[in-house]
């Protein structure tokens, strides 16, 4: 499942990032979002960014970015 397909309130684990997005992966690591992390989906509405909490930090991702992150529900 993609992060963009989750619902507000879901708790998910980051499984993988899309291939060929090395710059994107580096940027997410700087923000504190890594493979294996458990994150809380704070907000995911039809429009607007997907807001998640990881390691106590809130991160807002645009829909295009959220579609590049594979997650699994916990």
Keywords:
74 residues, alpha+beta, SH3 type barrels, 5-stranded antiparallel beta sheet, 5 strands, globular
Describe the structure.
The chain has a single domain, classed as Ferrous iron transport protein A (FeoA) (SH3 type barrels). It is 19% helix and 38% strand. The chain has two helices and five strands, in the order βαβββαβ. It has a five-stranded antiparallel β-sheet with strand order 4-3-2-1-5. Strand 3 and strand 4 form a beta hairpin. The longest helix is centred in the middle third of the chain and has 10 residues.
Summarize the structure.
By secondary structure, the chain is α+β, with helices and mostly antiparallel strands.
pLDDT averaged residue by residue: 90
How big a fraction of the residues is strand?
Answer: 35-45%
Number of strand elements: 5
- CATH class reads Mainly Beta
Low-confidence stretches: none
Discrete helix count: 2
The biggest beta sheet is recorded as:
5 strands, antiparallel
Rg computed from alpha carbons, rounded to a whole number of angstroms: 11 Å
SSE diagram, text form:
Elements: E1 11-17, H1 22-31, E2 38-43, E3 50-54, E4 57-61, H2 63-66, E5 69-73
Antiparallel strand pairs: 1-2, 1-5, 2-3, 3-4
């Amino acid at each position: 499942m993609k992060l963009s397909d989750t619902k507000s309130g879901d708790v998910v684990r980051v499984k993988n990032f899309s291939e060929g997005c090395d710059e994107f992966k580096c940027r997410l690591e700087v923000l504190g979002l890594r493979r294996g992390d458990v994150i809380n989906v704070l907000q995911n509405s039809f429009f607007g960014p997907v807001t998640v909490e990881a390691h106590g930090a809130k991160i807002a991702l645009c829909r295009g970015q959220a579609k590049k992150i594979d997650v699994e529900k916990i």
